[in-house]
Amino acid sequence: GNWSRLAAQQALSQDQLLEFDTFGNVTLMHLTDIHAQLVPIYFREPSVNFGVGPNRGEVPHLTGAEFRRFYGIEDGSPSHYALTSGDFTALARAYGRMGGLDRIATVVNAIRADRPDALLLDGGDTWHGSYTCYHTAGQDMVNAMNGLRPDAMTFHWEFTLGQERVREIVEGLPFAALGQNIFDATWDEPAEHFKPYQFFERGGTKIAVIGQAFPYMPIANPGWMFPDYSFGIRDENMQAMVDEVRAQGAELVVCLSHNGFDVDKKMAGIVTGIDVILSGHTHDALPEPVLVGDTIIVASGSNGKFVSRVDLDVSDGRMMGFRHKLIPIFSDVIAPDPEMTALVQAQRAPFEAELKEVIGQTDTLLYRRGNFNGSWDDLICEALLSERDAEIALSPGVRWGPSLIPGQDITREDIWNVTELTYPEAYRTEMTGEYLKVVLEDVADNIFNPDPYYQQGGDMVRTGGLGYRIDISKPQGERISDMTLLKTGERIDPARAYVVTGWASVNEGTEGPPIWDVVESHIRKQGTVTVPDNTSVEVADR
Amino acid sequence: MASGVRPRVKVPSTASAGETVTIKTLISHQMESGQRKDSEGNTIPRSIINRFHVTFNDETVIDVKMEPAISTNPYFEFEAKVPESGTFQFTWYDDDGSVYEDSAEITVG
Amino acid sequence: LGAGAALVTVLPFRANAAIEDHVAEFTGGAEVAEGGVTLTAPEIAENGNTVPIEVAAEGASAIMVLAAGNPTPPVATFNFGPMAGAHRASTRIRLAGTQDIIAIAKLADGSFARASQEVKVTIGG
Ligand SMILES: [Mn+2]
Ligand SMILES: [Mn+2]
């Protein structure tokens, strides 16, 4: 496509983005999975996002043109750019960056001008994912988010700051830290510091917000960083909490969740009495809520691209109706809020020189989202193979990390945006072919198990130097076949040991240079990076 | 005797007559399974707590036969009847012959 | 290595003859009915070294727990005395991999009941 930037910009205005016929008596604002993105970024949504079992072909597992058809989105429209993957580079040039906490502040303030007692709820994955977040142990995000005055929050990546740091921050939070499923691991009791729910009186209505933290924390992230805590879905306890708040007079029950969308759908079918689930973790952005029984599920994207507004009519102790809008944060259209601009700038100022340093350029669209690969991950795998001198590279299938469009500089900040975590060691080790298959099968089952309660919400581990075929409809142990060492074209020998490099191991004591140094060194040598199309994963025809 | 073994129990201090109370116990212990190998490849011999016995006023509440599959720092949660004021006695028996004990009073009022 | 070489497939361990021997030892060979005992365990273990389980069977005098896929399947036997408030107990166990956990209860009338649940142990991240 060939969209002129001016025409695109003229098609949009702040008033139009914020336009909303105020409805009912209660307003919820939902923001989730910001991953420490304080300033506007490009972020390409996935082109591959398979649903399995009951969720095959269901939202949020529609992508690209299929997604646009389902929601009646015109090709080339702002929604095309914000919500789907096709023609990304051209549309990014036309519509510009998205997000930025100062633009989000403008939106939040505008909604509060309309409905002063609107609730602002943060779904977590907030204190993670950038250079400044790492160097301040999350303090930059805490300071900036406090400026938005949220009413409650739940958690995932926050725990990778380590349990002492999390407790230290939570003790000082001017709002509720929620998680009905955050338990003390020693005595199996609700954990101190985290309340299951919080009541709010808004619009003459008694609202209970119940928190649901990421259930699989010690599996998907290093459990040794937060040994005092146990999580899990705990839907029986969720039901008990819903019954408890209803018994105490709650007229509206909201679940602030970091389950991931399919898990939330399943939970909504099991737990009765939740009116609204504000869903996070799987980074889906949906222009309409999904209904499961009497529960509406709202998905608000990631990386600061969207704020959801949900207006509700609650009367006679019941939710009678709702109106919803997923507000895209077009950074060139929404005016920054000056106070928040200053607050964000204050967090970044001490690191400005390091952040802005140009390491190289890219010729290729660098993105991450997709079930099997992303060009950013391909570049990271290349860097690992070359810098760590290995045959095979493994890179975790995380869903955070902004995109870069062709022709852009790659700064240090950009590299950290896609690599920052608190266990960054780029290990180098030997694994047998047999073990590599076990790893791939294990990860595949965490994504493609047909029962959502077994899904952890990430994407497939990315491989460098290794190709394979996957049949996602098969059971664990039978999905992966035709594993090939790309360098030689030979089949992987189960008995042979291969030199494998990777990063983000959940094992304590992993050694190696931090991944951001590995990637920076590689890009410096390249100057301008070009990432070829990835053809190493063959997805079996279903 | 295994070193650093420390029992901890959580028992309510009061109950009403005939009430059922929840008791939680934890004892710090390696629970060496007998299946691990040391750095030289030699099997580390089994050394576990093999029995946990709880009484209330000398009558058994629960008596657990424990195997190496019980995790490090064995944890138990169970329920006991409290017909009158009295004493819970907790006893852990180690493979090496050591016996660890703890007790807790409960008042029915 | 030839192109046709098969890779090892890892499947969950299932109850086998050895398990049945342990069961028979506990029941004295009596019949075991499905149901009448509750076994609660997570679908996915947060940590295979410490997996919380709970067993309960109304009026049971004893409940035995087996981990079918461990090198040695016995886990624990809970014997309930006259001061047991409810015939229920929780503990934390080690699982060597994804497998079935089995609970066999000796009920008040001397009959036996069985329940099982698969717990997935993942290598994670
Ligand atoms: Mn996230
Ligand atoms: Mn998450």
From TrEMBL, chain B:
Domain Sulphur oxidation protein SoxZ positions: 10-104
NCBIfam families on file: SoxZ_true (TIGR04490)
UniProt name for this protein: Sulfur-oxidizing protein SoxZ
SUPFAM superfamilies listed in its UniProt record: E set domains (SSF81296)
Pfam family, one: SoxZ
Protein source organism: Citreimonas salinaria
InterPro entries, per database record: Ig-like_fold, Ig_E-set, SoxZ, SoxZ_dom
Positions in coiled-coil regions: none
